[in-house]
């Protein structure tokens, strides 16, 4: 789960920004340096580092210093909290969509 100091709203806020979401997608393929994450986004290391800090605070990644580089690694277990939260509401939405489907079919039959 997410670190005790990172709440689900922090996770969703971190994932809700397109740049950070792209970084997470890149990290899902393996470890990356800050430079590796910044390059395809055409941003400075300082800019990338700010986004990485938000992701780290949300518990979505870890940073490790290796020589002169900072290597980032995805913490996929943190994504489980987001998955679990959304699954709680899947039954609700399935019921609503089933009701909508039934209403549309009923209207089409008239």
From TrEMBL:
Protein name according to UniProt: Winged helix-turn-helix transcriptional regulator
SMART domains: HTH_ARSR (SM00418)
SUPFAM superfamilies: Winged helix' DNA-binding domain (SSF46785)
NCBIfam families registered for this protein in UniProt: HTH_metalloreg
InterPro entries: ArsR-like_HTH, HTH_ArsR_DNA-bd_dom, WH-like_DNA-bd_sf, WH_DNA-bd_sf
Domain HTH arsR-type: 1-94
Top-level division of the source organism's lineage: Bacteria
Coiled-coil regions listed: none
């Amino acid at each position: 789960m997410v670190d005790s100091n990172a709440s689900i709203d922090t996770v969703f806020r971190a994932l809700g920004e397109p740049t950070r979401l792209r970084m997470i997608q890149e990290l899902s393929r393996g470890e990356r340096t800050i430079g590796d994450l910044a390059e395809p986004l055409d941003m400075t290391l300082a800019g990338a580092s700010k986004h990485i800090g938000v992701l780290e605070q949300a518990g979505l990644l870890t940073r490790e210093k290796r020589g002169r580089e900072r290597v980032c690694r995805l913490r996929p277990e943190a994504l489980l909290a987001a998955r679990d939260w959304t699954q709680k509401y899947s039954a609700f939405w399935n019921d609503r969509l089933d009701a909508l489907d039934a209403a549309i079919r009923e209207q089409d039959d008239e």
